[in-house]
Structure formats: structure tokens, C-alpha cells
Design goal:
This protein has one domain: 4-Layer Sandwich (Nitrilase/N-carbamoyl-D-aminoacid amidohydrolase). The chain contains 8 helices and 12 strands. The strands form 2 sheets. Strands 5-4-3-2-1-12 form a 6-stranded mixed β-sheet. A 6-stranded mixed β-sheet has the order 6-7-8-9-10-11, covered by helices on one side. Helix 1 runs parallel beside helix 3 and helix 6 runs antiparallel to helix 7. It is globular. InterPro entries: C-N_Hydrolase, C-N_Hydrolase_sf, Nitrilases_CHs.
Length: 322
């Protein structure tokens, strides 16, 4: 007979941590050191899991929203980004793993990943680390968004975007992926307890990261029946200097630097913790303590991965892809 799988330790009360901070723009070494510091800080505060923003190491290529992409400074910024991207595995992943082991914490960290030993190809990647420091999984963004397609290749890691912990599944999606119905259903089948939604520091002028993150993840928390960590980056001064090349772009980035958007959301779309409105406008980790039992109560009513769905009656929509 097969050996039975050891039962999970159903830890009921969890402490979640959402990073609201800026990377050191296009500086892999310094940003990695900041990641290590934030992980250790969250560990000292007894957090169980910490989520980081999109491409936190070493910064989101936000110039794709503001500059012509075929000429300098955009092309030079891409060259710098490639030089400061992360190879997986590599020294940065080893250092992050060691920090997670020291802090006794799970972490989901956004990086610009490059194909090792080459002179080309980047991905928008989430790295999943265990409490013991092991790199458990990586998820590459399924489809880069708009101008990101000049920077990042389509993901090659398939549909899986989660890790298993002693308290259940932890999933993660990147920016607009959090609004993808197929991605939501795929993640929902694994019954995540916690979902990390990672976001950049800004969008195109006129778009609000905070509004988008709350719109998508309030719905996502309700469709998945889970807790959501919204990790939202802060615009770094280095980014303003690098691609705030005219008065309009610089003014936009300076205004975005003042905004804060990290939140933690519970089932039914309830905001449990909010990093906005801080008087000092500083950087911080946003925390919330949550109870797993709330998820069972929620699924008593709505379980879209189980009793409250009929996937067989929708299957015909996918025949052409099979």
C-alpha cells in the first residue's frame, strides 16, 4: 500500500505582510539587500508570509509607459535592466533563501529574470521561497502587458503559480493576471489560503495602481475565497532621474511617488489593512492577522472550485484548444 501523505498542520491564525517600498532602481545588489532586510523585519514581527511587488529586483521598467521605445534613453535603460536582472538559481536566490530560513517565513519575491549565460531574454517572474529557505517554485507572467512585451518574453512556466505550505496553498499572480478569469479558476482549484498579488509602482498617466489592485483583488478574494496580499511598489527617486526626461514625465512620476497602495483583503472583498494615508508617506510593511476558519465559512456559500460551479457545461468553449 502507498505511504499516506502526512496531514498538514492546520495553523488557524496567520500573520500576513505586504511590502510597500521602492526598489533601488536598476541596482540588483542594493535591492537584494533591501529585500533581505524586509524579510528579516517581517520575521521579527512574527509574520508567516511576506509578499513583494512586481519585478522588485531591480525595478519595474516603467519607462515603457512614458518614453518612445526604439530610441535612447529607453534602449540604454533596457541594457542596464538586463545587466541587473536575476539568474535563477543564482547568488540572489541563495541570499533570499537564507534570509527566509533565518526569519522562518515564506516569501514571494518579484524579479526581472534573465536567461542564464546569454545576452538576451528577460521574464517577469515571481519566486516562491519556503520557511526553510528552499526555492519552491517560480512563476513567469503568462503574457506581458502592453509595452512590457518589448521587455519581457511570454512565460514558460505553465499554469502553476503556487506553493504548498503547512497551513495550505499560497498562490501568486502578477498585476493584470489577477483579473484573468482562467488564471483565477486555475488557482482556485488549489484552494489557496493566501494569494499574493504583486503590482508595480505606477501605470500609464491616468491609471491608478491602487484602484486597479483593489478592483481586481476584491473580486479575486471573493472568487477564490482566500486572503489577498496586495504588494504595491513605491516610485524610487532613481526611476524619476532615469526616465523623467521631460517636464510632463517628471511631474507625473513625482506625483506617483507620494502614493501608497498596499493592502490586505479578505473574503467578500473586505480591506483588512491599508497602507494608504500614512502621514509620513514613508515605506513600510503592511500587516494583518487573519483566521483560516473564515475561508471555510465563506465556502459554505460560494465555492467556485467545487459545489458552486458546473465546469462540464462550459467545457465546449475550450474544444478548439485541446
Amino acid at each position: 500500500m502507498p505511504t499516506p501523505t502526512p496531514p498538514q498542520t492546520k495553523k488557524r491564525l496567520l500573520k500576513l505582510a505586504a511590502v510597500q517600498a521602492s526598489p533601488i532602481f536598476l541596482n540588483k545588489k542594493s535591492t537584494t539587500e533591501k529585500v533581505l532586510s524586509l524579510i528579516l523585519e517581517a520575521g521579527k514581527n512574527k509574520a508567516d508570509i511576506i509578499g513583494f511587488p512586481e519585478t522588485f529586483i531591480a525595478g519595474y521598467p516603467g519607462w515603457v509607459e512614458l518614453l518612445p521605445l526604439a530610441t535612447d534613453p529607453a534602449t540604454s535603460l533596457f541594457t542596464r535592466l538586463f545587466a541587473e536582472a536575476v539568474e535563477v538559481p543564482g547568488p540572489e536566490t541563495e541570499a533570499i533563501g537564507a534570509a527566509c530560513a533565518e526569519a522562518g517565513i515564506y516569501a514571494v519575491v518579484g524579479v526581472n529574470e534573465k536567461r542564464g549565460g546569454t545576452t538576451g531574454t528577460l521574464w517577469n517572474t515571481q519566486l516562491f521561497f519556503g520557511r526553510d529557505g528552499e526555492l519552491l517554485h517560480k512563476h513567469q507572467k503568462f503574457v506581458p502587458t502592453k509595452g512590457e512585451r518589448v521587455i519581457h518574453a511570454p512565460g514558460t512556466t505553465g499554469s502553476k503559480c503556487s506553493m504548498v505550505t503547512e497551513f495550505g496553498c499560497v498562490s501568486s499572480l502578477i498585476c493584470g493576471e489577477n483579473g484573468n478569469p482562467l488564471a483565477q479558476y486555475c488557482v482556485g482549484l488549489e484552494y489557496p489560503v493566501v494569494h499574493v498579488a504583486s503590482w508595480p509602482s505606477h501605470f500609464t498617466p491616468g491609471g491608478s495602481v491602487r484602484d486597479a489592485s483593489l478592483l481586481y483583488t476584491k473580486a479575486l478574494a471573493s472568487s477564490l475565497g482566500c486572503f489577498v496580499i496586495n504588494s504595491v511598489a513605491v516610485v524610487d527617486e532613481g526611476a524619476v532621474l532615469a526616465y523623467g526626461v521631460n517636464e510632463e514625465a517628471r511631474g507625473f512620476l513625482e506625483k506617483e511617488r507620494e502614493k501608497r497602495g498596499a493592502t490586505i483583503v479578505g473574503p467578500w472583498g473586505v480591506v483588512l489593512a491599508d497602507g494608504a494615508g500614512k502621514e509620513n508617506k514613508g515605506e513600510e510593511i503592511v500587516y494583518a492577522e487573519v483566521d483560516r476558519e473564515e475561508l471555510v465559512r465563506f465556502k459554505y456559500v460560494l465555492d467556485y472550485a467545487g459545489h458552486y460551479n458546473r465546469p462540464e457545461i462550459f467545457a465546449h468553449h475550450f474544444k478548439e484548444f485541446l
